[in-house]
Amino acid sequence: MVKFAVRFKYTLTIPRSMELWYDEMHTPNMRLGFRIKRELEHVRSKYQDIHVFETYDYGNLLVIDGTVQTTERDEFIYHEMIVHIPMLTHKDPKRVLIIGGGDGGAAREALKHNPEEVHVVDIDEKVVEVSKKYLPRISSAYEDKRIHLHIEDGLKFVENHGDFDVIIVDSTDPVGPAVGLFQEDFYRKVKKALKPHGVMAQQCGSPFYNPQEACQVKNALKKIFKNVRLYLAYIPTYPSGMWAFVVASDDEIVRKRDGSMLNTKYYNDSIYEAAMVLPNIVKENCED
Length: 288
Ligand code: SAM
Prior knowledge:
It is built from nine helices and 13 strands. The protein has helices at 75-89, 105-111, 125-134, 136-139, 154-160, 184-193, 211-222, 269-274, 280-283; strands at 10-13, 20-27, 30-44, 49-55, 60-64, 67-71, 95-100, 117-122, 147-151, 164-170, 194-203, 227-234, 242-249. Helix 1 (75-89) packs across helix 2 (105-111) and helix 5 packs across helix 6. It binds S-adenosylmethionine (SAM). S-adenosylmethionine (SAM) is lined by residues 69-70, 78, 99-103, 121-124, 127, 153-155, 170-172, 177-178, 181, 203.
């Protein structure tokens, strides 16, 4: 089993001035704080502790088990990068599977490629519910009839479904229900669920805080796919801001289509290549 460090817990603090802040502890001595107007929702689902806060600067903020999942202000970076890199690595992605991604952001980006079907498989219906209510610009994809939502464990779903062109694992970090989504056994099932020329991608943490995490994911995938590349994006509200993703395929990992027509705020076709140029702190830990 692959082992990962876990993001630290959060605190709600009311400092001297009686302002309300939501703090995520990135280490025991380092935190990122959002000044918030109010807590919009707090539910303990069967699987997770879910909060939605209204912040001053970042719009509505979704937090699961004390870790920032997405904010209205910077969500586009993560969602564009987890989707457009694998989708453009495929010549013609018609059938797409998103595991996790209950907020709907990855599905919204996938629709920009005119697929025939996008299946979103999130284990937790509460995430979908609160996203529809409080994150309408992110969850708007659910109104499209090509989106098929399944409330199910992604681990089970890949065992029973197949023929996907692209599979995107947009899950929480490897704790709780997501642990199995970062293991070799799951990656073998993903490979089986892909058509020939299929492509998969996954988020794999902060290489600044957890240099081993992205490497372990890459090494596990290299046993299963011929080509595996890490890539990075800069996301202000995630620990350290530097975030890693992985893309894997038996085909060559190059951009197969023009992405310049996509309506994006972060991604462009120069970024496809640039994101795979890794700084030394990532390369050193994860040499080919
Ligand atoms: N951008 C995010 C982040 O911070 O890394 C991920 C966002 S998305 C909200 C993560 C989703 O993964 C959650 O809704 C959670 O319910 C889902 N999830 C976790 N484990 C899962 C599993 N085994 N199968 C399906 N969905 C899962």
